[in-house]
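Person: Please work through this fold.
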Amino acid sequence: MTQVIWIIAAVLVTFTAGYVGYSRYLTQFVELDEETETPAHKYEDGQEYVPSKKPVLLGHHYSSIAGGAPIVGPITAGAIWGWVPALLWIAIGNPLMGAVHDFVSLSGSLRHEGKSIGYMIGEYVGESGKNMLLWFAFLTIVLVVAVFALVVGIVFNAYPQVVTASLLYIGLALVFGVYLYQFNGPFIPGTILFVAGVFASVWVGLQYPLALFAGDYPAGTIVLFGGAGNWVPGAGALGGNTAAWIPFVMIYAAIASALPVWVLLQPRDYLSSFLLYTGVGGATVAIIVGTFLGTSAEPLVIDETIGAFEGFWGVDAAGLAPLFPLLFITIACGTISGFHSLVSSGTTAKQLDKETDARLIGYGGMLGEGLLAAVALSTLAVWGFADPAGGIGAALPNFASGGGLILTSLGVPQTVGAVFMALVLCSFLLTSTDTAVRLGRYMMEEIVGTPAGRTDTGLNADPASFARGRYTNPIIQIVPAYLLVVSGQWVVLWQLFGGANQLLAALALLTATVWLANWDDSKQLVSTGVPMAIMVTITILGLSILVFYENLYLNLLQGGAGSTEAMLSSAVQMVIGLVLIVLALALVRLGYRNISSVRRGPETPAAEPGDD
């Protein structure tokens, strides 16, 4: 039987080659200079623009970009089409497309005062292009907040030990922020002390699990409220405890997004990064050790239920989905993610101490997410997957269970390892959720207009101030996100999230290509233009299948939807999918006109600011 180590070996080889060679070339290509003043120094305000030490910012960036999608996606795709196609897309696509996407988004933002990709493209194709991309990004953020809060609720319900540990490490992060930035405490001793506290919180979580409502939990779980919580909105579809955690997570994200970055975001992401590095790195080492020393509870070989290649149409249980383009959209963030462009050109660009730090944080951070995807695929391989069509609910337990089995190679009991891997997943999700809310505020600031380096509370009668305010803007995001989740249409939500996220990646690469074309007419556009064209093609085809085949043909014309509610849901999916397709094509057209004007002269006129 095939050993799991081949999955890890493949990505380590391609990722090492990409970082050593391609990222060095890209750094020289965009002319990063450590002596150039970054936006973090130019607009330093102690709130959003805060120069950060490279390891601290890497921790924030990695924690923010790595959420549930690079875990759910590879597991689901590997079960449907086989582990080989999933591995190839991660190992090859990540260093050539995803890491390039993150790096150029970050580098481009540095050269545009730390502004978002929407602002960047508006500089070249006009105000209409800027507003289209910003609104697209803002709506994507709402979907991200909804999906990630949902998945956190699922994990909290499945592993109540994670609730206690998460609360403790958030508290530790608040104290660490004061220690570093108010008392100027020594960095290395503080890191040792507080990281030890984070790992101690894992032990406390194992001893004192916490739940809101009654359920099937480990012995000794502390239940705060009586009953099963059936009265909680969404309890019918999700269960009372899961449904109750979702608003808690969203309120936490709203509060965290309004705080200065030094209070919680930077210290928490830095501390949790050690937890994440241990989970991803520990699982990688455990696979190597377990393979060569045979120390795991079971042989680390690919389970017989997981095929190397299940055919172009996949397994019957998943509904015979075509590998192209759906595999690429399903894996999503493990290879390339549009959400990362919002993080790179949002919070990260405002905290970068030196331009040259973008190589490790932008390019290297995405490789780290690719390694997470490979670990997720490995957990599928060793544990097997009984329900390829199960989506989130089936994939998440697989990651924890398979991860626990892998960690037995290092002497960790399987039950402890499973809880630890669930905590790793939840750490990714919590950091990504509140970062997403903060990014949504940045998008709205640029839509309604806010001078660089200035923030607004939103606590006055001005509608524009309310829309962009750090205390009020989260309301605009979490209310619709919450309604989407409790409506019971979370399956629809996941599909729309995947389509919107991948389209955003294509548009971010388009933005980078336009920037390079306008910067210097001798700059090659292959590094960003080819991945952009591939992603536009994949995403448009994928959304077309969702709109015209799954919803129009199967659900509406063939009556597959069944109930009136399901038919309305299919109609909504069709409308949103079509809007995304039209919006993407319109932006591609604007970008093409601009590049043609710059590269081929005045034959094709460029879009003027404000040109519709």
Summary: Strands lie at 210-211, 222-223. Residues 234 and 354 are 46 Å apart (CA to CA).
